[in-house]
Amino acid sequence: MKASRERVGDSKRFGSVWDAIADTPEQAANLRARAELIRQIASIVNGHGWTQAEAAARCSVTQPRMNDLLRGRVSRFSIDALVNIATAIGGTVRIEVQAA
Prior knowledge:
two-stranded antiparallel sheet
C-alpha cells in the first residue's frame, strides 16, 4: 500500500490524515485500523448507554483507560488491546485486506 501524497506548490496533499501524520504507509494503515476499531467500540458502548465505569468493568480495564478510548486517543492502544476490548463487550472483529 502506497501513501497517497501529492505535491502542490510548497505544500503536500495526503490521501488521509493518517497518511499525513505517519512516517510510512504501514504506520498509516495501523493507525487507520486502530481508529476504526475505536470508533466501533465507542459506538457499541454509546449504543448500550453504558457509563465509562460500566464499560470499563465489562472490559476489565480502568475507567481512565476507557476514557482514553472514548476520546479517540489512538496512540494509547494496540490493535491487540482493541480486539480484546471489542470482544469483551460482545463484538466480533473481522479483518479485511484489499488489494491496492
